[in-house]
């Protein structure tokens, strides 16, 4: 039994040697390791990180140094009048009600007695505290007219009060 065990030990040694010979050969020390990263393959990643970092810095700088969105009363009044005319053309009673002064009924409001109009613009805004006047130009059935509307500031909004 001892001899047989010794033979098995010798046989297993030969098997280990054969397994060692079957292993893949070591890569040449001159070439890159095919399984590992190389300095050339890190370049695009590092470049992408740098681009993202630069873009992030640009966004922050743009936000810090961007001019404030200070809109003056004239612009707010012109926007209110434009929104009012668009809401009239779309028959949006909810928007019209929000853009009218509370004491101005829908029947007495500007454009109440006409259908769809072409908005020609607004201008000549004169602000006096919380009240203002604005010239509004519309075309109704081919007739271009300019009317002066009175608007009033209610909170942060300008509302149409008369036509």
Structure characterization notes:
- Strand 2 and strand 3 (143-154) form a beta hairpin.
- This protein has a 4-stranded antiparallel beta sheet, with helices on one face.
- The radius of gyration is 41 Å and the shape is elongated.
- The protein has a domain at 73-162: Nuclear Transport Factor 2, Chain: A (Roll), CATH 3.10.450.
- The longest helix is centred in the first third of the chain and has 27 residues, at 39-65.
- It contains 4 helices and 4 strands; from the N terminus they run H-H-H-H-E-E-E-E.
- Helix 3 runs antiparallel to helix 4.
- The relative contact order is 0.11.
- The chain is of the alpha+beta class and 163 residues long.
